[in-house]
């Protein structure tokens, strides 16, 4: 006996409500990214432990330092060491420290995230003819790309910017009694967010662009890694040696990122180069423009072969 | 807002070019609504027309309106009221039938709770109740067609474009798919534009047909007027000598159109008076076994139309 109507019924919802297509694409992409990472559970857990290990260590160290200094009467030698010693000073967050954490420590995990999650974002949609499905709905190309960039941006930020911000917030929470320190950390927080935005945007844009150029995630990953490796380790070094010109550093995306991030973080880091920072920033801007143009050229609902 | 009386499609001089190739040329039409068939041979421009109406392809010239919204206007708004089932295999990768249909609803602007409820309803409606939690990539061709239909309907559109919905379906699946389409068109008042190269599909579901040939709309009319009974001709089966019957017909001023064994098609005089046929039978000494009006099937009418368009 049929106890409810199983035929087609009309929907009486609000048809004028704004469409949050980019948010829907972002949400679905983040879930799919997690599913890809956890396809093999043990390696996934191992990867996450290694990726967040430094964060957990530093968080613990900051809290222990605050506790020990706060109870200096009980641990006078350790407290003195932590307050004025080299390790103690190192634990006081600085631009160099943030750079070291976000870029040097986490770069490998950013690459893993790009290859595992980012490479399939558009390529798999192209392979399944899903672009036609997206763009025949109230979804613009811009919303689609924002959603997809948001997915890989979220995962890169999750392993770089979020932990950095949390560590600064942890440091802030134990520094309320020192107004000068609070101000320094607030400025550092702002600088970290800007540097983090650059560090998230460039890998996200380049991997999504590579993904749009392929019909399989694997091919997109190979393309992306190939371009990075060639520019970073082969072409730039060879041209620099042959022509003895520092300008060829600009071919390295990593070099440009290092220059810009260190400048934003106000770090006095000697990069052994005469290349001015503005040139690195300009090259990154060119990368952004080229990627955006390529994405708009590749993400189309209909492939027209004239 | 489109009222029942206003046309769902209005096109004027619409032309679409791919480089040097013209896919649609000077298409001018007005479609009042209901279930409309889009018929034509492969490569005639059916899919191009649908994609242009969805705003996926830009028009090179001309203009038009879909549900009252200009094609060069904000098509993302009108797409909330349109469902689309593409011809080729297309799905959101890595999702189950339920997740894909829910996702389609979310992308169309539905709140999560509503999209969930509708996704279940549409999958049950499309006959995928048991398989809705399986990855779409594992579905058979017929199941993929059904999930595409569910995704096209999940946001309850006012107009749905179905591009070759029975492609790859077995006979039972085809009948079930056409039943679903007929139901939403006739019982739920959703306008349907059904693109197909299969005449039977269009004949079974639609009231109106657009015939496309070489990028042009060569016919836009009700099916009942395209596939019709030819009032001034009769199909006659006789018992006796066909040659004598032919001679008797011609002696009485009737024209024999076709003769095959004992089946003869005769063009009648004036208002379709059959009396001369019986007199010719008496003259020839033959017996009339049956006299029926000549019925022009949609297939014959279409062949005439396409032949004339060449």
Name its key features.
heterodimer; A: mainly alpha; 0% strand; globular; B: 310 residues; alpha/beta; Rossmann fold; Alpha-Beta Plaits; six-stranded mixed sheet; four-stranded antiparallel sheet
Task: Characterise this structure.
The complex is a heterodimer of chains A (306) and B (310). Chain A is mainly α and 306 residues long. Chain A has one domain. Chain A has helices at 21-37, 41-70, 76-84, 86-91, 95-105, 107-116, 123-127, 130-135, 141-159, 161-173, 179-212, 217-243, 253-264, 277-298. In chain A, helix 11 packs across helix 12. Chain A is globular and about 75 Å long. The model of chain A has no long low-confidence stretch (mean pLDDT 89). Chain B is an alpha/beta fold and 310 residues long. Chain B has 2 domains: 9-226, Rossmann fold; 229-309, ACT domain (Alpha-Beta Plaits, 2-Layer Sandwich). Chain B is built from 11 helices and 14 strands. Chain B has helices at 46-53, 75-78, 97-107, 112-125, 141-153, 171-186, 199-205, 223-226, 242-251, 275-284, 298-309, and strands at 9-18, 21-31, 35-39, 61-66, 69-70, 82-85, 159-163, 191-196, 208-213, 216-222, 228-239, 255-260, 263-267, 287-296. Chain B has a 6-stranded mixed sheet, sandwiched between helices. In chain B, strands 2-1-4-5 form a 4-stranded antiparallel sheet, covered by helices on one side. In chain B, helix 6 (171-186) links the parallel strand 7 and strand 8 (191-196). In chain B, helix 3 (97-107) packs across helix 4, helix 4 (112-125) crosses helix 5 and helix 9 crosses helix 10. The longest helix of chain B has 16 residues, at 171-186. Chain B is elongated and about 80 Å long. The mean pLDDT of chain B is 89. Classes of the chains: A mainly alpha (306), B alpha/beta (310).
List the helices and strands and how they pair.
The complex is a heterodimer of chains A (306) and B (310).
Chain A: H1 21-37, H2 41-70, H3 76-84, H4 86-91, H5 95-105, H6 107-116, H7 123-127, H8 130-135, H9 141-159, H10 161-173, H11 179-212, H12 217-243, H13 253-264, H14 277-298
Chain B: E1 9-18, E2 21-31, E3 35-39, H1 46-53, E4 61-66, E5 69-70, H2 75-78, E6 82-85, H3 97-107, H4 112-125, H5 141-153, E7 159-163, H6 171-186, E8 191-196, H7 199-205, E9 208-213, E10 216-222, H8 223-226, E11 228-239, H9 242-251, E12 255-260, E13 263-267, H10 275-284, E14 287-296, H11 298-309
